[in-house]
Amino acid sequence: MSKTTPSLPDYTLRAAEILMNLYNSFEGDSHVAYKAFTDLVTMPSPSILDPDFPDKYRAAECMSKFPFDIGVDRAAVALASFRSSELACAAFNSVTPWLDPLGTPAVLRRARGKIKQILGAFSWDNAAQWCAFGPGSTTSLPRIKGHAYYKFGSKPDVTPKCLPVAAYVLYTHRPIWWQHLVGYGVGGPAGQLAEHVRLVNGSNLTTVPKNAKTDRTICIEPDLNMFCQKGIGGLIRYRLKQFGLNLNTQQAVNRRLARVGSATGALATIDLSAASDSVSLGLCELLLDDDWLNAIYQTRSPVCTLPDGEIVPLEKVSSMGNGFTFELESLIFLALALAVNPKLELGSSLAVYGDDIIVPVADAG
């Protein structure tokens, strides 16, 4: 294999060669491969008018998913992106209270109507069946103790606003856990539960590997907040499925339509940057009915603690790590797409999976 980076149009083939060399070569060859790797990952984004754009873009994106050290402080880049998104959300939130609901853009009014049609009414009695723990860490437990065994057996964390919700769900729908955690007490469920939990301000921000250029920020949620957030996410997922968008199987649909778009040029794939960090509280106030909005406000973390100990208020509705973030962003992007073009059909001219959106090219602009 050549030990210099060739100026060939087939960058994708070159990317495969570099990977083979990185994984299989002796140390003497790996330096050359590593240099070629960094050249591909750090090269400027090619112009879409470049005749070699497909090969260059595919190669750079493929290679960037391997988090080798290219001299970038990936955690710092991720944190800077987080702060930038928060500033953008704060700017929108500052405008929202002054907006007349009848004067908001027509596309947002149509999107709100579509969301109302999809979701229907909210109640914790409906959402409780999906309340659960995720497999990861919480503010009280590290990831190594992420199994439900530890979470059901420990003293959980919860934010003050989420405490009454968690008390209702546990007392009414999880009586065995309630007895284990609280036993028999005097007074209302929230007062009883308060003696057996640790009240916290909100979530803890951390970063996880994403690619060679940046990490991804996630927020580790308090135990009972996550438990209740999963109930909201599960109910949204169920209502979306009834509407025709099954998030459990949607990845395959997106792959199929992406292939169709690549072959025909009729469909455009839209992969948004920092999508979950850009769904502001103000946008949710414009799009969601009060019953859903109240449930979200009760269970979300209002603040997060940064790695350096700084506590910051969250202008976004939720982050990655929250139990309803993925479902909520899928719902919002679906509604916005249909608000732009009500004639789009799921599975043929429209696909939504989180921030991975496919629409006709004419609607992508």
Structural descriptors:
16 helices; disordered N terminus; 365 residues; three-stranded antiparallel sheet; alpha/beta
Q: Averaged pLDDT, please?
A: 87
Question: Radius of gyration, rounded?
Answer: 23 Å
Number of strands: 9
Distance between the termini: 43 Å
Q: Note the total helix count.
A: 16
**Can you give the helix content as a percent range?**
40-55%
Return residue spans where pLDDT drops below 50 for at least 5 consecutive residues: 1-9
| Helix/strand/pairing category | alpha/beta
Order of adjacent strands in the largest pleated sheet: 4-3-6-7
In sequence order, what are the helices and strands, one letter per element?
HHHHHHHEHHHEEEHHEHHEEHEEH
**Share in β-strands:** 5-15%
Describe this structure in words.
The structure is a single chain. With 365 residues, the protein is of the alpha/beta class. The protein is 51% helix and 10% strand. The chain contains 16 helices and 9 strands. The chain has helices at 11-24, 27-42, 53-64, 74-95, 106-119, 124-127, 148-153, 163-173, 175-181, 189-194, 223-243, 250-264, 281-287, 290-299, 325-340, 361-364; strands at 157-158, 198-199, 203-209, 215-220, 267-271, 303-305, 311-313, 351-353, 356-360. A hairpin with a 5-residue loop joins β6 and β7. α1 runs antiparallel to α2 (27-42) and α2 (27-42) crosses α3 (53-64). The longest helix has 22 residues, at 74-95. The chain is globular, with a radius of gyration of 23 Å. The chain starts with 10 loop residues before the first helix and ends with a helix. The model is unreliable at 1-9 (pLDDT under 50).
